[in-house]
Amino acid sequence: MKIGFIGLGNMGGPMAANLAKAGHEVTGFDMAPVEIDGVALAASGAEAAAGKDVVVTMLPNGQILRAVANEIVPAMDKGAAFVDCSTVDVESARAVAEQATAAGLLPVDAPVSGGVGGASGGTLTFMAGGSADAFAKADPLFDIMGQKAVHCGDSGAGQAAKICNNMILGITMIGTCEAFALADKLGLDRQKMFDVVSTSSGYSWTMNAYCPAPGVGPASPADNDYQPGFAAELMLKDLRLSQQAAEAADADTPMGQAATDLYKQFVENEGGLGMDFSAMLPRFEKRGRS
Ligand code: NAD
Q1: Is there a single domain that holds both residue 149 and residue 65?
Q2: Which of 208, 217, 222 is nearest to 284 (CA)?
Q3: Best probe residue, ligand 1, of 8, 35, 59, 239 (max atoms within 8 Å of C-beta)
Q4: In a mutational test of the pocket of ligand 1, which residue from 6, 11, 15 has the highest number of ligand atoms less than 8 Å from its CB?
């Protein structure tokens, strides 16, 4: 297939490289100077998108996605798939899908889980929203870039799944860090705490697979001075998206709001910027009840 790929950053770069490695003809574009194995570079987004079977975007946010869509939708061939893998607000995903559909394109919102390691290893999970035809056209590419793709429903459903998942992730990480900090104050050994909780009803991905306590559980960013991994500011971005969606849909998400407030405080005032999102644990260690 002829593929256009716009946004060749930490995630998009290795994803595009995997498509090229699998034998597809990939033309990429990024605002910043980049070099990606096997990927030809175009001078603009429109040039990368013109005449392709599928165009993939992997961009920072919904505002940028809308601007890029305005540029590439008119340049794309009718019947081509427009697959946006960025994490953006549901409204932007739906607006771009509407614009693309009106132009005769097949839009899919397909945010991912799995981080930079998943992007380079080709083991991402895709959660997709769009028509059955659009999903069918994108699915062979999901197979190359990832290990699983779930067709969640119509346009916006992929972003809805992503922000609900990450709201759980943010809330659970805070709960896990709070519990470790409390265990410390109660004199409970962290390894014993892990041994019990990881096989009891308090188990979770944040405890079992991404433990925020250094030296406990499988290797995680906690064992690397909390270098990301998944940066606290990206967690904050996703929590803000879930709260924005909750507001628009009139859903009651008090725990999501509390997690957003804590990550905002952590990133903006407590040194969390640039740290992994599990660095909430040293943040709780430093604080007593106030
Ligand atoms: P990144 O900042 O490394 O990459 C984004 C790229 O988009 C940059 O290279 C930037 O130059 C480019 N860009 C910005 N505006 C552009 C434009 N108008 N035209 C062309 N290129 C443009 O970010 P990333 O870590 O690759 O994340 C991309 C998306 O994936 C985000 O929405 C993020 O939330 C999501 N995501 C990231 C992770 C992760 O662990 N990094 C995990 C899951 C999802």
Answers
A1: yes
A2: 222
A3: 59
A4: 11
Using the atom order of ligand 1, give the atom closest to the CA of residue 32: 11
Distance 86 CA to ligand 1 centre (A): 7
Query: In CATH, what number is assigned to the domain containing residue 91?
Result: 3.40.50.720
Predicted complex ipTM? 0.99
Residues 138 and 173 in one domain: no
Q: Between the CA of residue 27 and those of 46, 59, 106, what are the distances in Å? A: 11, 16, 19
Range of the domain at 256: 161-286
- Report the DSSP pairing between strands 124-129 and 40-41: unpaired
Report whether 17 contacts 34 (CB < 8 A): no
- CATH code: domain of residue 173: 1.10.1040.10
Number of domains composing the chain: 2
For atom 29 of ligand 1, the residue with the nearest CA is 86
pLDDT in tens, 1-47: 999 999 999 899 999 999 999 999 999 999 999 999 999 999 999 99
227 and 92: one domain? no
Does pTM surpass 0.90? yes
Residues 166, 149, single domain; the answer is: no
Within 10 A of 229 (CB to CB), how many other CB atoms are there?
20
43-68 tens-digit pLDDT = 999 999 999 999 999 999 999 999 99
Question: What are 182-205's pLDDT values in tens digits?
Answer: 999 999 999 999 999 999 999 999
